[in-house]
Write a structure and sequence with these properties.
Blueprint (H helix, E strand, L loop, with lengths): L1 H24 L7 E3 L2 E3 L29 H10 L21
Antiparallel strand pairs: 1-2
């Protein structure tokens, strides 16, 4: 019985790992930013020095903690599927963090 449970846990963890890998390697994911020191983990859309009027891109982010402004959160809510940023469904995302 322990062996069956162990195999099921291994299969579940492998499946979750594969899904995460697919999410990170899809063409929709934003490219890494180049900095003076090389590649950076920072996505171009999340840079605070982003000029006003820059268009955003659906890149898999769905939560307020992944946004950098009310403008960005609002755009994601209106344009990207699966966002989880409007708990009261009033059309205003991230009311506690960005859109007060």
């Amino acid at each position: 019985m322990k062996a069956v449970v162990s195999v099921l846990i291994l299969v579940l963890l492998s499946w979750q790992g594969w899904q995460k890998y697919q999410q990170l390697t899809t063409p929709e994911s934003a490219p890494l930013a180049l900095s003076a020191s090389g590649l950076s983990d920072e996505r171009p859309e999340s840079r605070p020095d982003r000029p006003s009027g820059t268009t955003f891109r659906c890149d898999g982010r769905t939560h307020c903690s992944q946004m950098t402004s009310c403008e960005e959160a609002t755009w994601f809510l209106k344009n990207c599927p699966g966002t989880q940023m409007d708990g009261d469904n009033d059309g205003i995302p991230c009311e506690r963090q960005w859109c007060q």
